[in-house]
Write a structure and sequence with these properties.
The protein is an alpha/beta fold and 347 residues long. The protein is built from 14 helices and 12 strands. Helix content is 40%, strand content 14%. Strand 8, helix 7 and strand 9 form a beta-alpha-beta unit.
Length: 347
């Protein structure tokens, strides 16, 4: 049983998050991403060659081999430097996108910036900087956002939304008032595009539309069904009434597939990333067929990279193989044909 002191600094909290993610079951209480409700109609006569299937996409004028991102995870602690650099090697070898963990700690302490810097070993990948949107209510502004981008040479900035996670931290930031206007200001002041993501409880169509109207260029659903920050934060809690209250949020959130559909219907032209419970190539195929432009994977990649770079690359090769076989068996020869594919049905 882990016992955590809640009056520890931000870096210690990050170490606890990493420890729990690697060593405990932190899956969503729902254990349901929504993709389970969909199936592809098998095409016994696909009229294409498996060897000619093209899974490439282009983002920020950079070609990627797969519509896939290593989602933001770690940074700001000693362990994170090796993890992020190993993940960058994987992302570069696989030619996929990558996001880094929240850079707030390195904005406040420049000595920790090295734990996020990976451009020297992954010069050509699509790379996302990352800050908590709520920090815009705690002294951060365009200067800090630009600093996060420049710190790692990012192509774009993620502002993450995490109200439930913050509510379950004794040391959390609880003031989410008037954030939309501040996000709009950031979008207007930065030259690089701003994306917004949730951390595991989903984004609704209504919220996505507000963000799009504010100037946000991309949405990452961060739906439930994968890693649960509720479970992670609950494991850290010693406060009795907050820990008891957390138990009742076990099934809270929008499953990823539903969040994806909501956002696609309200904002059909926004760049859309599906994350939350993506584990297989078939999951990626379903996400793209439901309208996503790209999928994001976090915890499995973290656990494989903790074994070795080769283990992580083998996992991503498994994802690629599953995606291509799914595309082959519905007759989709490229990502454009897979997207919004009519062969995906609700059970």
């Amino acid at each position: 049983m882990h016992k955590f002191d809640l009056n520890k600094p931000h870096t210690t909290r990050k170490k606890e998050h990493l420890d729990l993610s690697l060593n405990q079951d932190v899956s969503s209480g729902q254990n349901f991403s929504g993709f389970e409700d969909y199936y592809f109609i098998h095409n016994a006569l696909p009229e294409i060659s498996l060897n000619e299937i093209d899974t490439k996409i282009t983002l920020f004028e950079k070609e990627m081999n797969l519509p896939l991102m290593i989602s933001p995870m770690v940074g700001g602690i000693n362990e994170a430097e090796k993890i992020n650099r190993d993940l960058a090697r994987v992302a570069s070898a696989a030619k996929i996108a990558m996001g880094v963990g929240s850079q707030r700690v390195a904005i406040n302490n420049e000595n920790l910036a090295a734990t996020f810097k990976i451009r020297d070993i992954a010069s050509d990948i699509v790379l996302f900087a990352n800050l908590g949107a709520v920090q815009l209510n705690y002294g951060f502004g365009a200067r800090e956002c630009l600093k996060a981008i420049e710190m790692i040479g990012a192509d774009a900035l993620f502002l993450h939304l995490n109200p439930l996670q913050e509510a379950l931290q004794v040391e959390g930031n609880y003031n989410f008032k008037n954030l939309l206007g501040k996000i709009k200001n950031i979008c207007g002041e930065l030259e690089k595009p701003v994306f917004v993501r949730e951390v595991g409880f989903g984004i609704s169509g209504e919220v996505a539309l507000k963000l799009k109207m504010a100037g946000v260029r991309g949405i990452d659903t961060g739906g439930c069904g994968g890693t649960s920050w509720l479970e992670i934060e609950k494991a850290r809690l010693e406060n009795s009434y907050l820990k008891e209250a957390a138990r009742f949020f076990k099934n809270w959130g929008i499953p990823t597939a539903q969040s994806l559909k909501m956002v696609k219907e309200s904002c059909p032209d926004v760049f859309l990333i599906a994350s939350g419970g993506i584990r297989t190539g078939i999951d990626v195929a379903k996400a793209i067929a439901l309208g996503a432009d790209m999928a994001g994977i976090a915890l499995p990649v973290l656990r494989y990279i903790n074994i070795s770079i080769d283990a992580c690359l083998n996992y991503l090769k498994e994802i690629e193989t599953g995606l291509k076989i799914a595309m082959f068996c519905i007759g989709a020869s490229n990502i454009r044909q897979l997207k919004n594919n009519l062969n995906l049905k609700h059970r």
